[in-house]
Known about the structure:
Strand order of the largest sheet: 1-3-4-7
Number of strands: 9
Order of helices and strands: HEHHEEEEEEEE
Radius of gyration: 30 Å
Oligomer: single chain
Amino acid sequence: MHQQHGAALIIVLSLLSITLMLGLSGYQSALVNERLAGNHRAASLAQMGAEEAVSYAWGEGGEHLTAGDFVTIAALEALTAQGWASFYPGSRAGPCRGNLRCPFRYVRVGGQYYIVAMGAIREGDHTVASSMPVVARVEFREIPAPAFTRGLLSAGDITVTGTSTLTPAQREDGSIDPRLCPKSRMC
């Protein structure tokens, strides 16, 4: 009888050690998943910071921008291929706060104008995550007699593209009748 009690103890201890190993394995897996989620969150915040910087650089309808704000560079690819450490110095500060940084630059390549921005999560002198560069092309052109006085169609720096044409006509009561095709054609 005494030998059976010793065998039972060895079996129970073996099952307990196997259970402990499974528990530790699950704990390590949970830690790795938590780190992955944290890294994904940091990368997403950095990308959103870059997009926020482009929006901030554009401003309210782009009305404050002039061609003189843009610095001439040889190639856009040279700027977009830079990492965070070389992009950040010499850039303008974006609106981000806390440990999120979102600088931007106004650049001109040939006759094209661009806003280029990056975002990064910083902790002290260490970069936790940085975004890919976000590039927005800016066009300076006048839109003749826009249909609306405010909003997307009246902004001088936004190009609205598509196959339809907006030809507003004023009705007898003074309201606007926007048509998506010329009056000469039936829609």
